[in-house]
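Please, structure for the following, as tokens.
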Amino acid sequence: MHVGLNLIFLVPGETGGMEVAARELTDALVSAAPEVRFTAFVNRETAGTPGPWDGAVETVTVPVRATNRVEWVRGEQLLLPRLAARAGVDLVHSLASTAPGWGPFRRVVTIHDLIYRVHPEAHAGMRTLGMRVLVPLAARRSHRVIVDSRSTRDDVVRHLRVPEGKVDVVPLGLGRSARPAPLPAAEVRERIGAGERSLVLSLSAKRPHKNLRGLLDALALIPPERRPVLVMPGYPTWHEDELREHARALGLRDDVRFLGWLDARELEGLYAAAGCFVFPSLYEGFGLPVLEAMARGLVVISSDRASLPEVAGDAALLVDPESPAQIAEAIQRVLSDGGLAERLREAGRAQAARFTWDAAARGVLASYERALGSRA
């Protein structure tokens, strides 16, 4: 079998969770199927950068720059089919929700979520419009559709009218690479000016559907004498200004830390120092941050929406994300009840251990076999 991996979307350091998934899955696929030949189709930004496409698999550079949306679409829809045909692949797997609509090979696409459809405010207008065309095209013209969760499968079936039998649910895994030693807690606290107060960590993109505004509302309900410091790392977005203003209006100026990107040791230090991790998102195709926190032994409070109950299981406190009172109560419970916190820490580690990239690779390879078998 010769498989082409469509990585034209990937811009190192700028693609977020989809880059992490692509790197981890590519390594796992190579390990799980040494008899399969893999060719990665990458853009000019990615060519030659460190990654599994820089030695572990063959690489073909598609002559476009993915930071330009028009070039990216041209590369995927026009150039990739020709280059993949020339390379002689049997199947092309597109890993980021869009895919070429034609070519003399079988096609598999991973659709991570339908956020463009369910929460269009999450992205800028032109991107949402483009996804409204490209994602349904990928779902319709691909021979198999892979999704990260049963929740996303149901969305794909309902909104894109894809037959359920064409969809394979393959959960994501947790990273296999070693984590750096965390910064000492005292240093972390000094850097963010937290003193001896409890810390609550919420790590996500600052976009409306992540419901960080609702988390601020919840924090304001906690009496000042018991109120923890809320730490929100992540790259800034247009929505962050709204969040900062909302925090000021709620009188939370001294209770919230808006941080940008952190290096790995700083982030690990925050995980280690925090009393709990809160993920109040209104919609997720999977919810990898929940597992990342659980794997580090951090107590998790999670939204009960979309895929998150599948990922969290009974190892987190699930709350209605649109109820600040529920979120506030959950935060106060886990920070004050040591027995509950310890039970959730143990359950969280066990839950996170169930999700591996080796298992994901086996699920993806099975989807390839179904796609190739459907030729008959």
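The longest helix spans residues 69-87. DSSP finds 14 helices and 13 strands in the chain.
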